[in-house]
């Protein structure tokens, strides 16, 4: 393209004339998609969405039983949320992070009220990974220590530090990565990693952490970071007492506890925060996704009263051009207000009960259902070839991803207008928190059909 052509309106004209085919072609040629071999992709061209549904250019509608990346908690195009962004855009799209700005201050104040315990001041980022990066760096500065304990079945984001904290194989391509990360095992009670009957030291939490600390020297450990309920790595709920025992061990050695609630926070589990189920408060809470329902990129690191005090007298070594972006913060304020006004957390709890009961009924008919884990609208259904041995459904069969039984099941569901995804052999059921009874029932009906492919 010549310099003259670049500036010409000709090259940008016709934006309204995009068809599904034109979109597919441009996407294939020019867009790099996350975590993919680009040539193997065939993404659906999406034309729009509303509530729990989105549709393609042919007008086919799909029930979004994922909330996209588990972030569209208020569903697609919530009118009040769209209007709040519009209003902020008309008033002030951007002002640097060094200024005091209303939507930023208001959101931080709301978070101090909504988050558990004495969590108080917030630093706003552009997403979950950046919130975790800042949490870890701050923990190191506050404690003067370097090591961070993180779990294997965890995902904390894709930036340099966050991917090093991540335990799952997405980390491998970034290795050796950030130094000082020490791993612990997860409380995966259905497949206890230590192979013990419950309660084992790993699934209890504290004893396993304590042993690791003895080898690492607890005086060198700044923080322990966990997802209170593990999201992308299989929807794992810790046994009662697990988080509390981590809290006690951290307190014993002056180690900070970081809860990554980027996915589980803001009503997803039927409480405002997943840690509320067990009444355990972290020193640092990281959030994103449901914080503003994903309408504008946003994340947050919210810190305890003690760390807030520390920050008043010490340098915070962190910053982003878009820290506390007014459009993002205004959407956060609006999103939290909508959640309160429309009693969205109550709806998540109620619809979750309906979903849980429906899944339990499906388990009676489908032997491929090995385990159902969930609260609120944060459910995992683990598929097996044999309930007695718990052999996972997904073993690689040599014919490629497309031939895997779970992939076939997901494709069949999509054909029936139900969008959901899986982590290996665990189906992820995470619809918008505003979903209605008949939509839950519709999803259960489709699941009943497609699960026959796995039985
Ligand atoms: N932490 C958890 C628990 C997540 O699920 C994710 C994303 O899925 C992240 C962090 C990273 O967030 P982001 O993609 O906004 O950087």
Automatic annotation (TrEMBL):
Signal peptide: none
Keywords per UniProt: Aminotransferase, Pyridoxal phosphate, Transferase
Coiled coil residues, start to end: none
The UniProt record lists the keyword Transferase: yes
InterPro entries according to UniProt: Aminotrans_3 (IPR005814), Aminotrans_3_PPA_site (IPR049704), PyrdxlP-dep_Trfase (IPR015424), PyrdxlP-dep_Trfase_major (IPR015421), PyrdxlP-dep_Trfase_small (IPR015422)
Pfam families: Aminotran_3
GO MF annotation: an example: transaminase activity
Keyword Ubl conjugation: no
NCBIfam families: PRK06062.1
Family according to the record: Belongs to the class-III pyridoxal-phosphate-dependent aminotransferase family.
Protein name as annotated: Aminotransferase
């Amino acid at each position: 393209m010549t310099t003259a052509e670049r500036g010409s309106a000709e090259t940008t004209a016709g934006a309204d004339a995009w068809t599904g085919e034109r979109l597919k072609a441009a996407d294939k040629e020019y867009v790099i998609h996350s975590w993919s071999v680009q040539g193997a992709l065939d993404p659906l061209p999406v034309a729009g969405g509303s509530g729990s549904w989105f549709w393609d250019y042919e007008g086919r509608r799909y029930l979004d039983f994922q909330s996209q990346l588990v972030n569209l908690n208020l569903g697609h195009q919530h009118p009040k949320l769209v209007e709040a962004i519009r209003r902020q855009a008309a008033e002030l799209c951007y002002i640097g992070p060094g200024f005091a700005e209303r939507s930023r201050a208001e959101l931080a104040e709301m978070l101090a009220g909504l988050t558990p315990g004495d969590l108080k001041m917030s630093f706003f980022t552009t997403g979950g990974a950046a919130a975790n990066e800042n949490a870890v760096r701050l923990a190191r500065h506050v404690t003067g220590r370097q090591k961070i304990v993180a779990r294997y079945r965890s995902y904390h984001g894709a930036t340099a530090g966050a991917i090093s904290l991540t335990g799952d194989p997405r980390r491998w391509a970034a290795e050796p990565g950030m130094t000082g990360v020490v791993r612990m095992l997860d409380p995966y009670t259905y497949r206890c990693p230590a192979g013990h009957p419950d309660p084992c030291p790993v699934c209890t939490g504290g004893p396993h952490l304590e042993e690791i600390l003895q080898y690492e020297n607890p005086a060198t450990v700044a923080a322990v970071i966990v997802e209170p309920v593990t999201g992308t790595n299989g929807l794992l709920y810790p046994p009662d007492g697990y988080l509390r025992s981590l809290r006690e061990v951290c307190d014993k050695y002056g180690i900070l506890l970081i809860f990554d609630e980027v996915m589980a926070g803001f009503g997803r589990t039927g409480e405002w925060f997943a840690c509320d189920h067990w009444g355990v408060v972290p020193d640092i809470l990281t959030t994103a996704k449901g914080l503003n329902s994903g309408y504008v990129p946003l994340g947050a690191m919210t810190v305890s009263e003690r760390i807030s005090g520390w920050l008043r007298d010490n340098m915070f070594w962190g910053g982003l051009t878009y820290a506390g972006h007014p459009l993002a913060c205004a959407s956060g304020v609006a999103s939290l207000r909508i959640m309160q006004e429309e009693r969205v957390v109550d709806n998540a709890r109620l619809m979750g009960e309906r979903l849980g009961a429906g899944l339990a009924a499906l388990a009676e008919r489908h032997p491929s259902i090995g385990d159902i884990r969930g609260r609120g609208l944060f459910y995992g259904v683990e598929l097996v070839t044999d309930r007695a041995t718990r052999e996972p459904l997904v073993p690689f069969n040599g014919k490629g991803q497309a031939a895997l039984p779970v992939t076939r099941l997901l494709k069949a569901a999509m054909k029936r207008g139900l969008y959901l995804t899986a982590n290996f052999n665990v189906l992820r059921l995470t619809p918008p928190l505003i979903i209605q009874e008949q939509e839950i029932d519709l999803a259960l009906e489709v699941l009943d059909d497609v699960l026959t492919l796995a039985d």
